[in-house]
Amino acid sequence: MREERVIALAGMFQAIALVRATATRGSGDSVAMQPSLASVFKIDATSPADVFGGIGNLRLGLETLIAQLDDVKRDLAITRIAISVLRVRAKLARRPQTLGALRAGIESIAQQTAGTEPANPIVMARLAQLYADTISKLQPRIVVEGEPQFLRQDTQVAQIRALLLAAIRAAVLWRQVGGSQWRLLFRRHQYAMLARGLLAQCTLSGS
What we know:
The protein is an all-alpha fold. About 70% of the residues lie in helices and about 0% in strands. It has helices at about 1-25, 30-40, 50, 60-70, 75-95, 95-110, 120-135, 150, 155-175, 180-185, 190-205.
């Protein structure tokens, strides 16, 4: 179960790292973007790894998670977003209507865009609108810091919102496999060791 929790956390941190990259540089790792956005549509996957299409698709997330568990290398902007994402997840758990609207919206988008890549601008725009109609109504909102030139662009804003949905989806998964903030706090070193092992698997498999 601990490995499953690390996989879910890596998924969350991968999406958040991509949010941060989009907000500060205009875009993120396109290879990591596809599985992160695709995970939003995998509501009933058989395992955490399956949600992301395999551990090999989580290299960025594992690297980010390892850095965040290290007091020296931690990016506080990513930490702040992660805390906000976990709070939103907790609020969603108490809002069955919002959760139902999210699920229905995701299923509708999946049907409307069948055969289209998740990182396609049309798909991201629809996910972003769903985020605005549901998650954005919860207070306090998730605040993303970055460069104004990117935070004012419709394309970048849509990408950020779609990726935040992916981060929340991973946070829900993390909770489903027994994740808790207390466990993360007190078992940081174990989580980091497991993440390094999974990252090594990615390297050995050539993923």
